[in-house]
Write a structure and sequence with these properties.
The protein is built from 11 helices and 13 strands. Helix 9 runs antiparallel to helix 10. A hairpin with a 2-residue loop joins strand 6 and strand 7. Helix content is 35%, strand content 26%. It folds into 3 domains: 46 residues, Uridine Diphospho-n-acetylenolpyruvylglucosamine Reductase, domain 2 (2-Layer Sandwich), CATH 3.30.43; 111 residues, Uridine Diphospho-n-acetylenolpyruvylglucosamine Reductase, domain 3; 107 residues, Enolase-like, domain 1 (2-Layer Sandwich), CATH 3.30.390.50. The N and C termini lie far apart (61 Å). The strands form 4 sheets. The protein has a 5-stranded antiparallel sheet. A 3-stranded parallel sheet has the order 1-3-2, covered by helices on one side. The protein has a 3-stranded antiparallel sheet with strand order 11-12-13. It has 292 residues and is of the alpha+beta class. Flavin-adenine dinucleotide binds next to strand 2, helix 7, helix 8 and strand 10.
Length: 292
C-alpha cells in the first residue's frame, strides 16, 4: 500500500493567505491544486511536504477570458474548462489540440493548468504549448506580483522560476490576429504521456512569409521546451514544405531525448523532427496572411 508521510493541511481563503502560509513554513510547504501530480509523488515518498496549502477555494484563480489584448488563463483553471473554452479555441486552437490528448476525462476534470506548468514534468503537454505561444506567467509572493516569460519559467525537470513563497496566479497569452497554431502528439495509447509532441504558432505576412513563429517540443529533453534553432530558420521564409522540412531537421538535431520505456533516442529524435513539420503545416494552414 502506498501511503504518504504525515503532513499538515490548510485550506487557503485568499492568495495573500497562501503566500503567508508558504512564507511561514518555507520550502517544506507545497500548494495542492488538482493533486494529480503531487499526491502520487507523496504516495511514492518522492515528495514529503510538511504542509499542504489547498487552493481549491480560490475561485478568482479560475477561468479563461480576453483582457487588454491577452488571453488570460487562471492558474486554477481545470484542463476540462480550458478544453471547453470557446474563446481559447477561437484564438489559439493549439490549446484545444493539446487538451484533447492530455490524459483522460477524470484527470482533465481535476488537474489544473497551473499545476501542469508548475510540475514542470518534461512530458507535460502544456509546457511545450505555452512556450510556443510565448506566454507570460504572473506570479505573486511576499514582494507583490511579478511576471516571468514562459521561456524563462522552466529551470530544469520539476524546477521552475516560482520561488518557495510564491504562487502562480495566471498565464497571459498575447493575442495574434491571423496567427495559426497547432499541437500534435504521439503516445503509445490514448491518454498516455507523450513519446514526443510538438506545438507551433505561425504568423504570416503577404506572400505567406513567416513573420513570427513559436515552436515548443514536449518530452524530448529541451530544457525550456523551445526549438529556438528551428524558429530562427523559419522566420522570414515562405511557409512551404521545404521550409518546414528544414525547421523539422533543426528541431530533430537540437533536441536531447533520453531512452526510456517509450522508445530509444533515435526514434524520439526522428519523431521530434516529423512532429515539428506536422505542427507547422497545420498551424500555417490555420493562419491568414492578411491578403484574403
Ligand atoms: C494518470 C495520469 C495521466 C496523465 N497524463 C498526462 C498527459 O498525457 N499529459 C500531461 O500533460 N499531463 C498528464 N497528467 C498530469 C495532469 O495534467 C496533472 O493534472 C498536472 O500535471 C498537475 O496538475 P494538478 O492541478 O493536479 O497539480 P498538483 O498535483 O496539485 O500540483 C503539481 C505541482 O504544482 C504545484 N502547484 C500547483 N498549482 C500551483 C500554483 N498555482 N502555483 C505554484 N505551484 C503550484 C504543486 O505544489 C506541485 O508541486 C497525467 C496525470 C495522471 C494522474
Amino acid at each position: 500500500m502506498q501511503v504518504p508521510a504525515f503532513f499538515e493541511y490548510q485550506r487557503a481563503t485568499s492568495v495573500e493567505h497562501v503566500v503567508a502560509l508558504l512564507e511561514r513554513f518555507g520550502p517544506e510547504a507545497r500548494i495542492v491544486a488538482g493533486g494529480h501530480s503531487l499526491i502520487p509523488m507523496m504516495k511514492l515518498r518522492l515528495a514529503q511536504p510538511e504542509l499542504l496549502v489547498d487552493v481549491n477555494d480560490l475561485h478568482e484563480l479560475s477561468g479563461v477570458s480576453v483582457v487588454d489584448g491577452q488571453l488570460r488563463i487562471g492558474a486554477l483553471t481545470r484542463h476540462a474548462e480550458l478544453l471547453a473554452s470557446a474563446v481559447a479555441g477561437e484564438h489559439f486552437p493549439i490549446l484545444h489540440d493539446a487538451e484533447r490528448v492530455i490524459a483522460d476525462p477524470v484527470v482533465r476534470n481535476r488537474g489544473t493548468v497551473g499545476g501542469s506548468v508548475c510540475q514542470a514534468d518534461p512530458s507535460e503537454d502544456l509546457s511545450g504549448v505555452f512556450t510556443a505561444l510565448r506566454t507570460v506567467a504572473v506570479v505573486r509572493g511576499p514582494d507583490g506580483e511579478r511576471t516571468v516569460p514562459m521561456r524563462e519559467f522552466f529551470r530544469g525537470p520539476y524546477e521552475t522560476a516560482v520561488a518557495p513563497a510564491e504562487i502562480l496566479v495566471e498565464l497571459r497569452v498575447p493575442l495574434r490576429p491571423g496567427a495559426g497554431s497547432a499541437y500534435v502528439k504521439v503516445d503509445r495509447r490514448a491518454g498516455d504521456w507523450a513519446v514526443a509532441a510538438a506545438g507551433a504558432v505561425v504568423s504570416l505576412g503577404p506572400g505567406r512569409v513567416v513573420t513570427e513563429v513559436g515552436i515548443g517540443l514536449t518530452a524530448v529533453g529541451d530544457a525550456d521546451f523551445t526549438a529556438v534553432e528551428a524558429e530562427d530558420l523559419l522566420r522570414g521564409e515562405v511557409a512551404d514544405e521545404d521550409a518546414f522540412a528544414a525547421a523539422g531537421a533543426a528541431a530533430s538535431a537540437h533536441c536531447r531525448p533520453v531512452a526510456d520505456q517509450r522508445g530509444p533516442v533515435d526514434y524520439k529524435r526522428h519523431l521530434a523532427g516529423e512532429l515539428t513539420v506536422r505542427a507547422l503545416r497545420a498551424a500555417a494552414a490555420r493562419a491568414h496572411d492578411g491578403t484574403t
